[in-house]
Amino acid sequence: MASQFLAMMMQTSRQTVGRIERTLRPWGWYETVSESPNHKIKRIGVLPGQRISLQKHCQRTEHWVVVQGTARVTLDDRIFDLAVGQHCDIALGQVHRLANVTSEPVEIIEVQFGAYLGEDDIVRLGDDYGRA
Question: pTM of the full predicted structure?
Answer without folding.
Answer: 0.84
